[in-house]
Design a protein that fits this description.
The chain is α/β, with parallel strands linked by helices and 410 residues long. It is built from 13 helices and 18 strands. Helix 2 packs across helix 4.
Amino acid sequence: MLPFPESGVFPLSVSRTPDDIARYMWLLSPGGQELLKRIREMAAEGGSDLRIAEQLRASYPADRVALAMTQHDLRLKARDKFAQADRLFFTRAGLEQATSNRIAAHRADRFASTGRMIDLCCGVGGDLMALASLPGIHHLAAVDLDPVHLLLAGANVAAIAPECEPRLIQANVRQVDLTAFEGVFIDPARRSTSGRFGGMDSEPPLEWALGLTDHVPAVGIKTAPGIPHDLVPQGWEMETISLGPDIKEAVLWSPALASGLATATVIAGDAVHQLRSIPGDVVPVRRPEAGQWLLDPNPAVTRAGLVENLARLLHAAKIDEEIAFLISDSLVETPFARSLPIIDALPWHEKRIRERVRELDGGPVDVRRRGLAGDVEAITRRLRGKGNRRLVIAMTRVQDEPWAVICDIA
């Protein structure tokens, strides 16, 4: 086990040189901050990147201008993930792998009463910033193998939660002593220096991360949203998380933190909506008809395996035992599904569907394939009409038969 070095002491990793660290330390210095400010002001005045770089190279070394210009570009890209992106620092890989501040804040709440926390594979600090903002955590540490990422993570925490001073540990997470901690969050790397790992592979592997409960009771593990349910141990909770309609990730929560077997979370603006198992009667199966509403569940619901629970919540029916589309006799407004008014429902026959699109004055079509094989892009091109009406076509199965459900866009 490795002892904790003093905060700010980073043994070099094989992928970084002393020059790499020195460049980023300069970027964090008053001189680097001043250059970033000048770039931001010049860009706000309409200057192109090429023109800004040319002007700045008259006063700064070319490599520092290039580093600061890259940082400015990363901050612009980071605005989709971080509300305070213009105060933060990134690398390209660090930004790509970082969790958005809304998801990180939501996840951090599970650790609100965990006094001593450690963030493994912390990257540039997406989750570390959220954990540092929790008043209940009185001791916080972060571990990463990349000393530049640790350096930036510390700077980012200082920008967001200046009262918190996490201990920064440059090490392989497999070798860190966890006996002093009550809670662990880990975001295993899914990318190596040669590219992205395949399938559910990660470093450290999921099996190793699950074993963290041998040392610490409260454990959260970020995983890909497509994790098979049979990889989730008994007593653990799988939470799938979407930002609006887009699924982002899954998290496995150890029994000490679990609130059920599965949770679908949809974050919309400042609101967090959660769906868990709802026991009840068997959900009925019915054929969709014109005048009903097709419910297309949020992917967080489908990945969590909670489609039937959503049906019970909404008093809806399934269109097939194995298909995730639901139907309702009336409009349902819910964060867990998109509601689409059904115009027609008919057996899947592409020529007849194309004719029906023309009859409905259809133009652009959005094909949602679920339960049938086919090239969605090619089918969409063939079904597109010349009219002005935008349609959604569910290419699916109804009671085990190929079917098309044609809907208006509500």
